[in-house]
Amino acid sequence: MTLHIVDSSIVVIYLIAVVFMGLWLRKRAGEGMDAYFLGGRSIPWYVLGVSNASSMFDIAGTMWLVSMLFIYGLKGTWLPWLWPTFNQIFLMVYLAVWIRRSGVVTGAEWIGTRFGKGRGAELSRLAIVVFALISVVSFLIYAYQGVGRFAAAFLPWDWTPDTYAMVLMGITTFYVILGGMFSVVITDVFQFVMLAIASIFIAIIAMTNVAPEVLNAVIPDGWKNLFFGYTLDLDWSNLIPSVTDKIAADGYNMFTIVWMMMLFKGILTSMAGTAPNYDMQRVLATKSPRDSALMSGMVSAALVPRWLMIGGIAVLGLAFFSGELRSMAGGADFEMLMPFVIREFFPIGVTGLVIAGLLAAYMSTFDSTVNAGAAYLVNDIYKRYIDPHASEKKTIWMSYGASILIVIVGVIMGTQAESIHSAMGWIVTGLWGGFTIPNVLKWHWWRFNGYGYFWGMLSGIVTAMVLAQIVPASDYLYYFPVTMGMGALGSIIGSLMTKPDEMEDLKSFYTSVRPWGVWGPVAAAVHKENPDFKTDASAGRDLGNVAVGIIWQTTLVVGPVYLIIREWYAMAGAVVIAALATYWLKKRWYDVLPQD
């Protein structure tokens, strides 16, 4: 693609600016481990919330969601549940508070607050470090795939996607290494502003160029319907026949089963708490448990502009790119919808802003992931097993090296991945299947111990890695119960075949975190020593708020899409439901948030 000098200048100025940002923040980030990895726990919750949303506003995910909305219509707005996106609601309602009460630096260090200091705790800590590093590398593979394809389609230099990916990863690594969490958060906020402006431009362009009757002529019956029957019932055969093949390859035709699997998987995965990645680092970086809950709620609200972008690009693609998709040899490449729309519809200046914003989105995901991965390598491996007495200066230098190592591994693995979709499928259904049950049990069952956690995580992760070699990518969702089942088996057998954790460790966890679940013997021991102890935990209240929160979050997704396609009654309905859900959450969640 040939960029105007104005657009090229905007992109280059942005890339130079983020490098100088890292240099500017280097001194502050070098003050210590808390400063480098958690911003000294001094950053306001709303800034962290916008930063976290910016990290989720990534190129690869946006390209995938555009293609899902194009193919599946409003039903495609359910597919983010594969991640699952509503884990932010569980965090908002209660889990972020539970996590933040630990006051640690990483998720692996947090394990010590649950399982104590014995051998089982040490094994469980190693398990979460291994999982964290695998998931970090997996996310880097996913980001590598997205940014390479995007940059090759837009930037004016005649480089391969791999070359673009390596250069952009190198620039991002530089400012992350120097500025740590401060650099990540400040650049994330700047990137979010750029992306929000770009999203509004895209929505206006789509609504200006695509009238309802034009859209109706290029979509099948049922495309605008959010709800569904047992099967998908979207007949693309007379419009773009290759879409039918894509639906079959994705394995989503039996949509009711897919939806139920996503809900089942999503609830369990969300109850496990955040994975040990940039999301958990944001929770741990908040000033207080209350702020961690508010930060998690901010994420869902801040992602509204993303759906203006997704909806606008999908609608423009439907109206003007369908013919090119029909004529593609070897089948349509739906991941090229976004590059086509930006190339064809954006004026000078806006094109540069949008490209810089989307590169910023990639960098936001990438920088957060690298920062989180380095935290595990340095805090949970180097300082714990190699040099426990390392000075702060030496630790910061090791953090630089850890970041570089993670990026190198991510680049090497990224060159081997087949596509964005396959990388995403492995992360959200394979890898998370092994993570789910051990991390649900750690919150809710007192008898679950460090050995159970280790064997549960090991069983699940190994099963996921084996199945990834023998199961087609389209079946990832369906083998989630297998990896989850193996994780559950390892967790229960590992716990029951070994003695419980020390009661003192269990009482300490119960009184500080104050979870709900099967904690009877521990609660009895606590009340025996301290009859006045009270907990604010309420499973009924929290799960009720989660249900309302998921409805609230869904309206924030479908509302912008209804706006783009001018379905005014449906949009009004979404607004009314969002308002009612907001009122409920104000009374039942916000007003009763703990003050600690």
Description of the structure:
It is a single chain. 74% of the residues lie in helices and 0% in strands. The chain contains 25 helices and no strands. It has 596 residues and is mainly α. The chain folds into 2 domains: 5-417, Sodium/glucose cotransporter; 423-501, no CATH class. The mean pLDDT is 81. The termini are far apart. The longest helix has 49 residues, at 161-209. Helix 19 (420-444) runs antiparallel to helix 20 and helix 22 packs across helix 23 (520-529).
Pattern of helices and strands: HHHHHHHHHHHHHHHHHHHHHHHHH
- Measure the end-to-end span: 54 Å
CATH-level-4 superfamily name of the largest domain? Sodium/glucose cotransporter
* Top CATH class of the largest domain: Mainly Alpha
CATH architecture of the largest domain: Up-down Bundle
Q: The CATH topology of the largest domain, please?
A: Sodium/glucose cotransporter
Structurally, how many domains make up the residues? 2
Query: Stretches where pLDDT falls below 50 for ≥5 residues?
Result: none
SSE blueprint and pairings:
Blueprint: H1 5-29, H2 33-38, H3 45-56, H4 59-72, H5 87-100, H6 107-115, H7 119-154, H8 161-209, H9 212-217, H10 241-250, H11 255-271, H12 278-285, H13 289-302, H14 304-320, H15 322-327, H16 337-345, H17 350-386, H18 392-414, H19 420-444, H20 450-470, H21 480-496, H22 503-513, H23 520-529, H24 539-564, H25 568-588
Helix pairs in contact: 1-8, 1-17, 3-8, 3-12, 3-13, 3-17, 4-7, 4-14, 5-11, 5-12, 5-13, 5-24, 6-7, 7-8, 7-17, 7-18, 7-19, 7-20, 8-14, 8-17, 8-18, 11-19, 12-13, 12-17, 14-16, 14-24, 17-18, 19-20, 19-21, 20-21, 22-23, 24-25
